[in-house]
Amino acid sequence: MGNSVIVRRLGLLAVLALCVVLLALVPHLPSYYVRVVDSILIYIILAVGLNLVVGYAGLLDLGFIAFYAVGAYAYALLASGQFDIHLPFIVILFIGAAAGAIAGVLLGFPVLKLRGDYLAIVTLSFGEIIRIAINNADDLTNGPQGIAGLDRASLFGLPLTTPVHFYWLLLVLAITVCGGVYYMERSILGKAWRALREDQDVVRGLGINTTTLKLLAFALSAAIGGAGGVIFGAFQRFVSPESFTFQESLLVVLIIIIGGVGNIVGVIAGAVVLVVLPEVLHFAAQYRLLIYGVVLVTVIVLRPGGLVSPRFNLGFIIRKVRTLWLSPSKT
Amino acid sequence: MALALENVSKHFGSLVAIRNLSLSFDVGSIYSIIGPNGAGKSTVVNMIAGSYSVTSGAIRLGATALNRLPKHRIAQLGVSRTYQNLRLFDGMTVLENLEVCFFPQSWLTFLTGAKRLSKAERLEICHACLAEFHLSDVADVLAGDLPYGRQKILELARAFVTQAPIVLLDEPAAGLNHTETKDMAAMIAGLKREDRAIILVEHDMEMVMSISDRIDVLNYGELLCSGTPDLVRTNERVQEAYLGTTEELDDIRKLAQSRRAQGGLRANAGIVRH
Amino acid sequence: MLDYFLQQLIFALAIGAIYGLIALGYTMVYGVMRLINFAHGEFFMLGPYVYTFIFSGLIGLGGLAPMLDSAIAIIASFVIVGLLGVAIERFAYRPLRAYGRLAPMLSALGMSIVLQSAVRVTVGPQPVHFPAIVPSTPIDALGGMVTTVQFGILVAAVLLMVGLTLFVNGTRLGIWIRAASESWTTSSLLGIRVNRAVSLVFFIGPGLGAMAGIMYASYYGIMQPTMGSVIGLKAFTAAILGGIGSIPGAMLGGFLLGAIETFGTAFLPILSFGYIGTEYRDVFAFAVLILVLLFKPAGLLGETVSEETTVAKKDY
Ligand SMILES: Nc1ncnc2c1ncn2[C@@H]1O[C@H](COP(=O)(O)OP(=O)(O)OP(=O)(O)O)[C@@H](O)[C@H]1O
Ligand SMILES: [Mg+2]
Description:
Chain A: Keywords: Cell membrane, Membrane, Transmembrane, Transmembrane helix. Chain A: The chain crosses the membrane at residues 40-58, 65-83, 89-109, 116-134, 165-184, 215-238, 250-277, 289-306. The complex is a heterotrimer. By secondary structure, chain A is mainly α. Chain A is built from 14 helices and 6 strands. In chain A, the strands form 3 sheets. Chain A has a two-stranded antiparallel ribbon with strand order 1-2. A two-stranded antiparallel ribbon of chain A has the order 3-6. Chain A starts with a helix and ends in a 5-residue tail after the last helix. Helix content of chain B is 38%, strand content 22%. Chain B has 11 helices and 10 strands. In chain B, strand 7 (166-170), helix 7 and strand 8 form a beta-alpha-beta unit. Chains in contact: A-B, A-C, B-C. Adenosine-5'-triphosphate (ATP) sits between chains B (12, 15, 17, 35, 37-43, 84) and C (308, 311-312).
């Protein structure tokens, strides 16, 4: 028995080490691959944020990208020649998150009374309104041309310019966001959200103000979206309304559904699949989108509950690791 | 604390579900509301809990008029309930179903943490409650995976876990078998306390008669009679409304007796609904 | 000014009728399946393509009388697009029924990508000229303000709507559809073949969408693979505006949206002293929608959903 414990622990260490090594290897890949990984990480952050609303609270939000746009434009306006304001990146990161949250609450208020699909369409409209407004407010946002030449970002004196720099930043942020959301999921707030998803009338009957609950979900997820947008702005050093179309909102929703709703591990898998798939399909030239669509439909028809089973979640993995480490004989 | 309905009416379109109903409930007793299907019992419960609006009249808890308040405010004031058709959070564990009840009730308590139970305190209360309702062994089972009888008990536990002074129970024994019903009756009787009013809607006469301090009989949305179990039992109008005319009742009795002689049917006044 | 107003009114009615026809497809599908069929805009787009294909095919074969060719091509597009809708429901949505509402929606999104890119790879992404079904000439009898195309669109759309209403309210199959929308379980318990009702809805909805597409393309004389996206979104807005699930609601929503958009954009620059221009046209639809839902959360003709009504549905 003593032997098998050692073997198991070694196995566990090996898996962990492999993960760390893989993550550490990324910066040494050619720049194109680093960019893809960056993109995956951004979408993980966005999808985990949106998942608070869609997966936990059960509210279908189809206008999520608007918050991302708010964050990106916060960076574009506060760190560029547009108004000759040049705030530091970290400050704008917080401003972007706050602006996202405020936009989230603003959106939240009118939609609180709505149920189900009405909510979906109102959030969708909201996203479109924001995009069209950005497109037309020429004085502020330069309209369709967008704003170029944004400041090079730096964080605590370290430059944030290459994809590798952003890789580290995004990795830290993604882990923080996943950890934070996981913690929230297990707190009483997370339980109230799940209850809300199951039966909102009963939740009200327990003395819980469902309006507050929904607003909180909207605000938190919008803050994450806003922060993601700031990083996107700093990364691209160019923003234009084109990046914030309805299709982008849908992509984030797709990541959540295809991975497995309400499951952080699923969201990560979904982001990897949906970001990598179009890249892999480059060879197919003009058939790329067609194949993408066919794969999408096939996957969902074959695995309607998402790629990752709901049981295989972060909690499961953590429990597994813990028991394996502390009392391996039980497993 | 006393709960009072004053001239309450409820209309659904042209249907008058409750007509000029006045009732009052004080802590310390178990009240039963009975009546044939469609008499308006659940409607009363739903109006008190704020699920249904009141067409006219007032519902007061102490000095507060409930019928103008949003539903969650009513619950915060100390009204908790169960539903005629089970409404548990099926995808959450038994323990979590109870824990949710302790969600901080306002922004302020949520943000500052004042008056807010710590996680340990919350869990302690919930575990104690589970033990009281014999659910400890299934604390980590998903509520939806429990057998029906235990789901009914879990819903009961959820209504009592916050120690609400007014508890509304809408047919807690519906769908339970004879033994389960007996257990349920004993359980509810044991929950009677000085600082709590239990308002029970139930079709099982044995249960109603054995545990109620007062019985209110509704028929077509109107109060037919109200009083102690003995009073109600012997009231002829009640028997007519509830079971048909006395002749019909005699026929049924005879039939039941002959069946029982054959050793089959168990007399059951309750109408099982799912 | 009055002439201008009349002209705008006719435009509003024509575009509103088109919105209404598409909205009907959204609403009927939503009614029976509680599904937002994101692929619906693509049926609208397919309409003119299928029409052109058949029409030029007929001409290639020698052709009959020109009007007859058009008529055949129109009917054929209805049927072909309708059947495509039925097939898509059968293979992409039906297997997902037991899996909540997000999975079918995702599938619909995927189908939308598939349809649009399929057209793109077969005929190319660029806009193509759409052959006029009737030559666009001003009708003198109506003061010269209305063209034959506008008039034709209006008449055809109204005929289709009246036909649909008669069908849904008066025939056995129509009653099936309404029953299935009301309650899926009860209908199946009563022996209604719910699956047939669903198939029927997926035939009629896309068919009507295709008709709307043909009207739209004849109005602007042009078609392109992406034309379904924005219009589809707006028609969906119209369906919600009227109250999703409600057939008269979809028609009302369509006309209202057409009117709001047209008059809003026409008069907004005047009202705002030129500050807000016509580029806000697309914002209009959405802003009005949000406003309406603030006061009528279930849309104009929709069933209000409160706890009182849901409890009633659950318990009885
Ligand atoms: N939400 C509602 N909408 C319309 N009618 C309703 C609604 N709720 C109840 N009713 C009607 O009001 C009347 C009283 O119903 P209620 O549910 O209160 O009866 P009940 O006494 O609880 O009956 P049961 O013993 O069957 O539960 C019935 O006629 C019912 O159809
Ligand atoms: Mg009842």
